Amino acid sequence: MEQRYGLEKTAASPGPEPSSPQSVRTPPRSPSEEYQRPLLSTPVTEDDGGIIFSDSEIRYWMTNGLDLASPSKDNNPAHTYLMRDDDVDTLTLPPFDPIAAVPQNLDAAFKTATKAQVPHLPQFNAKKFSSHNMDPFLKAQDIDENFKVISDAKVKSYKIEDKKLAQVETMTRRMFFGLNRSRAVNETLIAKFRDSTAEEDRMTYSAFLMQKKDQQFMTDHLSSISTALTLARRQGLLASCSWSERFTKSLYTAPWSTPSIFAGGCQGSYQRLKRNPND
Q1: Contacts of 104-109 spanning 24+ positions with Cβ under 8 A
Q2: Closest Cα to residue 65, out of 117, 19, 9, 10?
Q3: 20 to 30 Å CA-CA from 139: which of 34, 52, 167, 218?
Q4: How distant is the alpha carbon of residue 126 from its chain centre?
Q5: pTM score of the predicted model
Q6: Do residues 118 and 253 make contact, with C-beta atoms less than 8 angstroms apart?
Q7: Cα torsion through 265, 271, 276, 279, rounded to 10
Q8: H or E element in which residue 166 lies
Q9: CA 263, CA 165: separation in Å to the nearest integer?
Q10: What is the pLDDT of residues 166-201, one digit of tens each?
Q11: In the chain, what percentage of residues exceed pLDDT 90?
């Protein structure tokens, strides 16, 4: 029995000696016919016929087989790998840096937000990515010059339902799920190759470090997108409200990480309005 990644895997049986009368082997079944027993669950096979391990198996390999340390040494369960009832399928990954720092960083940034706040655009240098044919991804589309001539629209603002903006913001926030799992896998493989001195392993290690920079880049841009959308929604919702500047400022500066957009900041006024509907 071969022990790999903390899981059992049966070793292949050696073939018969060439002199044996049974030396002629039966051709192996095609990958589509061959039953390949996975370590933990049903495998996904590709054209090469090899096993593609399930998400839960990969998480188990990351946390157990490679002995990947928890990204935080404190006792906060939000920073620790969790598995219920020794069930591998329930193993979950915590947020990794830089994703883990996003809620705290954006909550701090929103403490100084105002109704005239301009979204932050992270630095970008296309040359650092050494890519070509990427022009459609470079920036937002410009407004056609001929449109500016024939259109009588002077104000460059748009009317959009909050529901639509909220949908875009939801999609933006959910992208951190895929990014965080990518970071977890990336950090695992960095740890695997960090101590190797073989040239090819060092090249692999360096490639994973380059990928880590890209994940930081994506974190910065996703954070800025989500910030801009949150600000746009708050500015839109408060634009027609005739409340005091002090009260509206408290709503603009509500944390980014709370479930409701104003973090319950309207509750006091709501209760007063219920008591005195004519106010």
Answers
A1: 105/223, 106/223, 106/226, 106/227, 106/255, 106/256, 106/257, 107/255, 107/256, 107/257, 109/227, 109/256
A2: 9
A3: 167
A4: 22
A5: 0.72
A6: no
A7: 10
A8: helix 162-193
A9: 18
A10: 999 999 999 999 999 999 899 889 988 989 999 999
A11: 27
